[in-house]
Amino acid sequence: KDNFTLMTKQCLDFRPSWVGMVDKRAARELKANLAQLGIAIKIISGNQAACELAALKEIDTVMAAIAGVDGLLPTLSALRAGKRVLLANKESLVTCGRLFMNE
């Protein structure tokens, strides 16, 4: 996948403060692309990147829009960090609704 190219374009368009990517190689490529463009965006990578982003102190609201079970842990991280969570997928409620409602 060449997802760092798409992510570079999205960073140019939306100028986020933070970006998280599971693929560490793609994150390195993104960092290099953004540095060449003179854009300073904090980038984290690895399997826990979405969980880390969801729990950042600077964030008060998290949109949980990762499809399937991949979105469960980041959603739980956001809830446990006291964030307001906007669910944009049904899997979270279908599989873990009781757990999420109790958090």
From TrEMBL:
It comes from the Eukaryota. The lineage of its organism: Eukaryota, Metazoa, Ecdysozoa, Arthropoda, Hexapoda. It comes from Homalodisca liturata. Pfam families: DXP_reductoisom. Residues 2-97 form the 1-deoxy-D-xylulose 5-phosphate reductoisomerase N-terminal domain. GO terms for biological process: isoprenoid biosynthetic process. GO terms for molecular function: 1-deoxy-D-xylulose-5-phosphate reductoisomerase activity; manganese ion binding; NADPH binding. This is 1-deoxy-D-xylulose 5-phosphate reductoisomerase N-terminal domain-containing protein.
